């Protein structure tokens, strides 16, 4: 035992403590049934959610009376206003943790409850370093072979982009304020703007070159199709990087997005299709985006 105080921060959502009409545990209860915490701080966006938070406390106390609960009144003008949520959450979290600093708290944040904007605010606070915490994502039983699981969002894997908190008093760069017309915010911020197509088009040259690369490697576009997807309504060419899958059809994009999404869960995946349609490539794509990416991929025919 390290002696550190294990602290959970989380919003309370409409599925806490149970989804309506169900006896299944909601996001907060499911986590507390799986992991132990000494202190649980629940952020409540109104009286209804305060009652939900108290219900969570009563259920947990019946099995583990030693867990301490705190409730934070988190009134918002809008539950979907990114700026309002981020600013209020940053101040509230700092105030809550200030009184625990002497206990060397090990802070975890549950991302699941709340609106997408609230989840984004948690992510930005932790990713930018303003809040030192571990981000937790619950995996519902239906996506994990019937057993609730907890996944830690890995911020040290080099996959997710860095986020830097704005310096106090700083002002975002505005295109056109001291930069040539059309240079964009990158040039105004002191970074070179992406080179444009010398033919005068609006697509950055680097992106245009990358879009044409598959054709140069022997991939042929359908008659009348633009590699950038402009003018045909089909979207840009897609190249997944590690696993070479190239295409522009909407149905293909749907398949690739589904493959990346399902890769986040520890479940068996059945990929169906006729011979030669690329089932093996989709399987490799799922492996490349899964937690087993550093393990061997063994194809069986």
Question: Outline of this structure?
Answer:
The chain is an alpha/beta fold. The chain has 8 helices and 8 strands, in the order βαβαβαβαββααββαα.
Write a structural description:
- Helix 3 crosses helix 4 and helix 7 packs across helix 8.
- The chain has helices at 27-34, 47-63, 82-98, 116-127, 184-188, 205-216, 250-262, 279-288; strands at residues 6-11, 39-44, 68-73, 106-110, 134-139, 149-152, 238-239, 246-247.
- The protein is α/β, with parallel strands linked by helices.
- Helices cover 31% and strands 12% of the residues.
- Residues 171-241 have low confidence and may be disordered.
- The strands form two sheets. Strands 3-2-1-4-5-6 form a six-stranded mixed sheet, sandwiched between helices. Strands 7-8 form a two-stranded antiparallel ribbon.
- The longest helix has 17 residues, at 47-63.
